[in-house]
């Protein structure tokens, strides 16, 4: 049995920052499942199905990466998939406190599943899906922020 990591997020939409973490995770783990979770505190631009499709298109060059979705608790999903790890990206210190709380709760619920934090590449440290959507809404160029399928999907959404 190979080493499996879950890379969770809302991915609304997937950015090069996300892709950086996914690609690097795919080089460490035998399998990575990119799991789309619908964050109730966010108002998504793309449906879960659209996000999954964009992620699949953006990760098709990675043979050990698959895409899935879940609406429940991340730790329950990770247990169901027999994952050894949860892979999370960190952009800045501001992400750390939020991620630490989630990790602490996940550890309380199941101490056998590790959470690994990976610092994103410095060139993407400012990047978030929210910023990308805001910039794309005003027809600015986002080609260096998101994969081409995402750029096209954003253009369609903001026509």
UniProtKB/TrEMBL annotation:
ATP binds at residues 10-11, 18, 89-91, 99, 124-130. Residues 6-134 form the Cytidyltransferase-like domain. Pathway: Cofactor biosynthesis; coenzyme A biosynthesis; CoA from (R)-pantothenate: step 4/5. Its main location: cytoplasm. Its EC number is 2.7.7.3. One of its GO terms (cellular component) is cytoplasm. This is Phosphopantetheine adenylyltransferase.
């Amino acid at each position: 049995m190979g080493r499996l990591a879950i890379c969770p997020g809302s991915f609304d939409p997937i950015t090069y920052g996300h892709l950086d973490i996914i690609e690097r995770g795919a080089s460490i783990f035998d399998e990575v499942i990119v799991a789309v979770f619908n964050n109730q505190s966010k108002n998504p631009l793309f449906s879960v199905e659209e996000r999954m499709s964009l992620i699949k298109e953006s990760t098709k060059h990675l043979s050990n990466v698959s895409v899935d979705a879940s609406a429940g608790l991340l730790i329950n999903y990770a247990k169901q998939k027999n994952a050894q790890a949860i892979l999370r990206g960190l952009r800045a210190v501001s992400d750390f406190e939020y991620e630490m709380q989630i990790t602490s709760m996940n550890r309380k619920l199941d101490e056998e599943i590790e959470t690994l934090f990976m610092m994103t590449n410095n060139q993407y440290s400012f990047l978030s899906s929210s910023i990308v959507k805001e910039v794309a809404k005003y027809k600015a160029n986002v080609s260096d922020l998101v994969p081409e399928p995402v750029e096209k999907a954003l253009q369609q959404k903001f026509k």
